[in-house]
Write a structure and sequence with these properties.
With 273 residues, this protein is mainly α. 62% of the residues lie in helices and 0% in strands. The radius of gyration is 19 Å and the shape is globular.
Length: 273
């Protein structure tokens, strides 16, 4: 039997509260405690506190071009790479929480799925933070860039653009990047870190699939062609230029259709399979 609405957790409000938490471990704990109730409040507009997203004072945020390159043959180089991945996962927690509270009126399944994404992203961050500590470092020890959240800010008033350009573009790049990063870690003899990449890639296929599902659902609701709409949104919001090679197998598993993959390769100037 379902609990009464008065006793049910307000999932979207809890997402907003977690988004505002600054310290990573406190944010992860808040996310792990979230479970979708029987009924999700999907209509109400929430008033956000200032200073979103909550994040610690470190790492220092700099432009991507200013990030130094480090050799994978050193512990410091591998730690810097893991730190970059941890920063992506920390941003991914915030992105999942943000889409939950910011956009009311979607079907309940939408909020349940992004709740699961937030929980899994918190687990990814925790795995990477623990591995960093094992190598003698901590999250915040290296500079990072803020590209993921900058796109979230650009698309804060447009759910279709948010889904098109964050999970289906920036986060989907992780499907392409994970296998070569894993190989580099394994070649450097870091089997423990390589195993974390296996977990992340497995889960990220599901996360991108969620983005694909809701992108196509919204396009259908609005009578829009998904391929043409994606190109239009990428240009309007100045999304980063796509770069290959693409992990076509993982992208197919995540719900990209052949016409979409052909368009992505064309936009990136890549030969098509």
């Amino acid at each position: 039997m379902n609990e009464s609405p008065q006793k049910q957790e307000e999932l979207r409000r809890r997402a907003l509260d977690a988004l505002a938490i600054r310290q990573p471990q406190g944010k992860c704990a808040a996310v792990w405690s979230m479970r979708a109730p029987a009924d999700v409040d999907i209509q109400g507009h929430l008033a956000p506190p200032p200073g979103l997203p909550g994040r610690p004072d470190r790492p220092e945020l700099i432009s991507p071009a200013s990030l130094p390159r480090r050799s994978m043959s050193t512990v410091e180089g591998r730690a810097a790479l893991l730190h970059a991945l941890a920063h992506i996962e920390f941003n991914a927690i915030n992105l999942a929480l943000d889409i939950m509270w910011r956009f009311p009126g979607m079907p309940e399944q939408f909020y349940r799925e992004w709740c699961r994404v937030a929980i899994e992203e918190a687990t990814h961050f925790d795995l990477l933070a623990r591995r960093l500590r094992a190598l003698g470092y901590a999250y915040g020890d290296f500079p990072a860039h803020n590209g993921l959240w900058e796109m979230a800010e650009k698309t804060q008033g447009d759910l279709l653009a948010r889904i098109a350009l964050v999970p289906r573009t920036l986060e989907a790049r992780g499907l392409d990047a994970s296998p070569p990063i894993r190989r580099r870690l394994a070649q450097a003899g870091d089997a423990e870190s390589a195993a974390i990449l296996d977990v992340i890639l497995r889960d990220e296929v599901g996360h991108v699939a969620i983005g694909n599902h809701w992108y196509k659902w919204l396009c259908a609701q609005e009578g829009r062609d998904p391929v043409a709409t994606y190109e239009e949104l990428a240009e309007r919001y100045q999304a980063p230029r796509l770069r290959g090679p693409f992990n076509l197998e993982a992208r197919r598993a995540a719900g990209f259709e052949e016409a979409e993959l052909e368009a992505l390769q064309r936009m990136a100037g890549q030969p098509q399979d």
